[in-house]
Amino acid sequence: MSFQIAIDGPVSAGKGTVSRLVADRLGLLYVDTGAMYRAVAFKALENHVSWDDEADLVKLIQDTKIELERPTAKTADGRLVTVLLDRQDVSWQIRTEKIGQGASVVSTHKLVRQALVKIQQQIAQGQDVVMEGRDITSVVLPKANFKIYLTASPVVRAKRRHLDQLTKGHDMTYDEIYHNLVKRDKDDTQRQASPLLIVPGAWVIDSSDYSIMQVVDLIVDKAKIIRSQIR
Known about the structure:
The chain has 231 residues and is an alpha/beta fold.
């Protein structure tokens, strides 16, 4: 049976960076489920499919191959994961604010989530994973060995997001980032299809006053204890 670490939390809480580093330290596969929703939103935009059209989005997923790979020496450009959409590298194209907003809309559709959850569960079968997203602890991997809810204050998350966007050359103000983040928080927690929530037994970590490496150390230390107890 695989060892599974499931991490949920709001946007820009540091889930991606933390999950990737934890996976590297423990020798696990890092799975960024949010990237899959972004990939669907990106392809829908490219193919003039409305983010509100659930039926067409499901058909799009059925006709699409989404793959997640560890970055190689050739792709060591700061990405946490390589995202291939029909074998095309879209790792950076899906990381814009617009596609993030699209992913938030796409993720509200129950049938879209069901289609992607099935793929995510298949990935986690038979291999040790660190999987992060919005409903990993509640829906995708409800029997995960280690469940975490990683968060931070909206102001701290908006500052992190703003700096990240500036680093990537995206010209957005802090106020725009903050209001988009608050809206996405509201959408994620109030959607009918798998809302973002803290499940019983999840370890809540507020990273507002912690560095990335401090959070990673906390999770790795506890994960080692849990893994040793079940094997």
